[in-house]
Amino acid sequence: MNVRNVVGVLGQLLRPFALLLLIPAILDFVDNELASALTFAVTACVIFVGGILISRNRVDPNRISRIEALAVVANAWLLAAALGSIPYMQHGFGPVDALFESMSGFTTTGATIFRGEDFATATRGLIFWRSLTQWVGGMGIIVLFVAILPALAVAGRQMFFAEAPGPEEEALTPRIRHTAAALYRLYIGLTVVEALLLATVGGMTVFDAVCHSCTTLAAGGFSPNPQSLAGYGPAAQWIVTCFMFLAGASFALQYKALSRPRVLTRDTEFRTYFWIVLGAGVAMAGLLAMTMKGDAYTVESSLRHGLFQAASIVTTTGYASEDFNLWSESTLMVLAGLMFVGGCAGSAGGGPKVVRIVIVAKFLAREVLIALHPRVVKVIRLGGRPVPRDTTRQLIGFLVAYITIFGIVALITGVIEDDFRIGFTGSIVTLGNIGPGYGSIGPMETFANLKLPTKLLFIFNMWVGRLEVMSVLVLLHPSVLRTLLAHRRRA
Fold this sequence. Notes:
The protein is mainly α and 491 residues long. The chain has a domain at 394-490. The protein is built from 24 helices and two strands. The protein has helices at residues 3-20, 22-30, 34-54, 66-84, 86-90, 95-106, 116-121, 124-139, 141-148, 155-163, 176-200, 206-217, 234-247, 251-257, 262-266, 268-291, 299-314, 329-338, 354-372, 389-417, 420-431, 452-466, 470-475, 478-490; strands at residues 381-382, 385-386. Helix 2 (22-30) runs antiparallel to helix 3 (34-54).
């Protein structure tokens, strides 16, 4: 692995990243929050200059290997989280809490260390920075910069697919930069439409509407309101439900559907995703109507909360229309099951992804059939096309690694916190980039009160989960580490 290539590309990414910090700086300047505005502006200047210096490492974009692309992507997320934590530290948060909030933002997890009073004292620039980090992370840091940095050339293809791994790698256009730009046009368009609807129909202020549209399309879940969407009316909740559903669907598929709507109904993953959200939402609505007492749970409100939370958890957005900590255990069991699903491949959602669930179900069905009829030949198909054995093998490897990391972190954090709910739900919501869990880390609570080792493990979980596990494990393989050490000795 050529470390100079990796460092050089990271330097190129720092310059446009620095410009993002100027947006909250301008907002705080307009609000006369000069100290906060100066913090953002100085941080942006330092990062920009650092990017110029680092990018002096010569990069051959035509000779970026897959390992180097994985290294760029993994380190880009770490670097973004580390640099993005500076504004939080300047506003009084400790280094670990600041890194936790920043990592949660860029990985679109939505688990927050903000307490109720922090929302009241934070500047609008900092609140918007939280939303902006999720909007950038939703489509992907690399996808954004591939779209705007022609210097990445061929290297962009390697990094594009390294950042968004899945059972299939598919580009909309022959040139990956054009693909990235097309996806971002759709992403921006949906963000603008949602912001307009929330401001005009949903009853939000323009600022709240923009923040929520950024974090909804990113499947992120950060809200400027400490009560999340429970702090707004039914109209806003219905609008956000619809756009959360879109955020969890493949953006490439939605782009194709603009000219060929029938591709939605023909896509196996999308159909499965639709029925999971609808079925779980209706099931929870029924459970709420039966188990929750009071006039608040009418047919409309039960259906609204059921569909809202089903979409929020499946898409890994993590918003809350109610404090679901107060719901019945049966309803919470449905939500817990949804935490192991995730959005569609190519969406802003995290988690294992629906397409993997579909292929695993087909694989298990085939194994049962072969156990009954050993001589039968059964090919796994998805959308009429056979699924290659290598894809199935990689998928099973991913799920084994995913469940293993979840189990280890759940066990350790459960022991550290002496709380099963924190260990179990905290591990899956951070690894799956979902956001709130149960108990003291529920939707109306905070992760700020957790112990330091737990926060560090959850930060690791968020990073690994956003990179879909295997990318990080590949970089930690002994052969890769030996190559890196050998390169350092030669340098």
